[in-house]
Amino acid sequence: LYSVDLPDEHIAKMLDWDKPLSEQAPEVREALQKWLGDDTLRQLDARGTTGKQLYNMAPGGDARNMMDHQKNASMHLNSLGIPGIRFLDGGSRQAGTGTRNFVVFDEKLMKILNRE
Known about the structure:
Layout: E1 2-5, H1 8-11, E2 15-16, H2 26-36, H3 38-47, H4 51-57, H5 66-79, E3 84-88, H6 90-93, E4 100-104, E5 111-115
Parallel strand pairs: 2-3
Antiparallel strand pairs: 1-5, 3-4
């Protein structure tokens, strides 16, 4: 079990798993626009596409299983400047608000404070 420091500047650039693309941070929207283009991003906005759905659409390369797809999708988003994913934890998900968990694509962004 690790305790880490993840700077707020990186959290702000993370894809929010639970929110529609129209509600993503400006830095995320800019990265998505570069990847998808204006027309596709508008179409996804109109459909109410969430961060989770977008992540599952990300290129998986020649992925033959889910683990490979997740690795490739994470690498792709990281290459766009999206350093990770943030999502509501199990206790907060039903309420739609509360505390969050984070998945960081590049461990160099974190500082380990404690190991148990």
